[in-house]
Design brief:
Strand content: 15-25%
Largest sheet: 7 strands, mixed
CATH architecture: 3-Layer(aba) Sandwich
Structural class: alpha/beta
Strand order of the largest sheet: 2-1-3-4-6-5-7
Distance between the termini: 57 Å
Number of domains: 1
Number of helices: 10
CATH class: Alpha Beta
Low-confidence stretches: none
CATH topology: Rossmann fold
Number of strands: 7
Radius of gyration: 18 Å
CATH superfamily: Thiamin diphosphate (ThDP)-binding fold, Pyr/PP domains
Length: 259
């Protein structure tokens, strides 16, 4: 009998610590599949930051470095500059990347550092107690916004992909979601492209991965996936926000037409 489905070699054979229904584990598998497919696992160095993503080093068969809360892009920059042949990626949640790490991600993107960032956005602080995050939706309840996020007091959620796409430095930015098979397949392609871009020396790539957090949303796994589709994706639209390879191809095509 031919085997048609198996665990990626870059994914460790260990039990997960994630809550039932959390989609972070799917993202880890997508990263492992991309590392395998591109034959980059032996060169890869992951940067684990603080939050639910902190134990990523337990799940991926590559070197890892722990970073302080929000500082993963700075650590990744140091590793990549010291070992330019390495494939360096960060795995960060929204509380980490979009709050305490805002300056780090903005300046790494602005410099066009040749690193890859996987930004898992579940609109809430997970490991630290379910507090309101910079990406928490208006009206969404959390331990620090029990009546729901009030835009007049807390502002509106930060759209990281759109914000970083205004900079000249990034090579590739795409937002994907872990809510249905077609979108998960699309996420896998985006993750692979982001890593391939780094291997080709194209510069900074970020894949924002919209994820579900049943525990801190106070929902069943099924309800959380439904909310991801009906509420989170509409506010954070999926799509490519920057792709210099496509832009260069379009510019070349336009130049040819003008000639």
């Amino acid at each position: 009998m031919n085997k048609v489905f198996e665990r990626p070699a870059a994914l460790t054979d260990v039990a997960t610590h994630y809550c039932p229904g959390c989609t972070y584990g799917i993202a880890h598998r997508m990263i492992a599949e991309a590392l395998d497919g591109l034959q980059l696992t032996g060169r890869a160095v992951g940067i684990a930051s603080v939050g639910c993503t902190v134990l990523a080093y337990d799940y991926l068969e590559c070197d890892f470095q722990q970073a302080a809360h929000g500082r993963a892009p700075a650590v990744a920059t140091g590793v990549k500059r010291a070992r330019p042949d390495s494939i360096v990626f960060t795995i960060q949640g929204d509380g980490d990347l979009a709050a305490i790490g805002t300056a780090e991600i903005v300046h790494a993107a602005a410099r066009g550092e040749n690193i890859t960032v996987f930004f898992l956005n579940n609109t809430i602080y997970g490991m630290t107690g379910g507090q309101m995050a910079p990406t928490t939706l208006v009206g969404q309840r959390s331990t620090t916004s029990p009546a729901g996020r009030d835009a007049s007091r807390a502002g509106r959620p930060i759209k990281v992909s759109e914000m970083l796409a205004t900079l000249d430095g990034p090579a590739y930015i795409e937002r994907v979601a872990m809510d249905k098979p077609a979108n998960i397949a699309r996420a896998g392609r985006a993750i692979r492209k982001a890593l391939a871009n780094q291997a080709a020396g194209l510069g900074f790539s970020l894949v924002e991965i919209l994820s579900a957090c049943p525990t801190n949303w106070g929902m069943t796994p099924k309800e959380a996936i439904a909310r991801l589709t009906s509420e989170v994706v509409p506010y954070f639209p999926l799509g490519v926000y920057r792709d210099i390879t496509a832009e260069r191809g379009q510019a070349s095509q336009n130049g040819g037409e003008q000639a």
